[in-house]
Amino acid sequence: MKVLPPKLITLLLFIAISTASLAQQNEKLIRITGTVIDPNSNEPIQASVFYEKLPYYDDMGISSTNQSNGVYEFSLIENQKYIITVKADGYKPISEEFEVIDKGVGLIEKNFKMQPDAMHEKISLDNLIFSRGKADISEESYTELDDFADWLEKRPNAVVQLEGHTDFQGNAEANMRLSEERVLAVKEYLTKKGIKKSRIKTKAFGGTEPLTRERTPEARAKNRRVEVRIIQQ
């Protein structure tokens, strides 16, 4: 086997390093930004967004979303392929291949909607009925609430969030107050059944998340609801 002279090896190494350095200088960085949100509520999610350059993973990093608006941001090399992975507590991770193709503006918007994992999905208390415009729980609702209390009792580690919704018509502030009063009424009922207050969170949405925009009595009744989100099980 022929051994190359030391001077030639040094020259070849210099050429290789210079070529790599020149290539890096010519690489154009493109700003990647977007939001990470919950698909049901459209609320921002506190998430971590990872990127890894293919095929050798020689460029990688992480960006955390802004807690107030769910926005993330980083810069990637133009015309390169990456694996982008998004992770957040309570949601199924997202992992997908992404090619950085700039359309002349130096910015690419990439948004993500994360699906809740099975433990964080919502269920609706369909038979929960309140007096019109009030937070008084009707006797017709007791059976469903008793069943739900039993469910919680059998799962001592479970933590839930009660989410109150009203019809979108009428005064927005009044609707928000009413939805809050209703979830608090449900929480009080459950605590009287022996469920610890610390296991029941509440959140009011008012009329901001209607299931339907129709104005029929049936549609309005459908919008007036309390949903349960399983936070921990």
From TrEMBL:
Record-linked Pfam families: OmpA
PROSITE patterns attached to this UniProt entry: OMPA_2
Signal is among the record's keywords: yes
Origin superkingdom: Bacteria
Domain OmpA-like span(s) in chain numbering: 117-233
Signal peptide residue numbers: 1-23
Entry keywords, A to Z: Cell outer membrane, Membrane, Signal
Protein's cellular compartments: Cell outer membrane
Membrane-spanning ranges: none
Gene Ontology cellular-component terms listed: cell outer membrane
SUPFAM superfamilies: Carboxypeptidase regulatory domain-like, OmpA-like
Keyword Signal: yes
Protein name: OmpA family protein
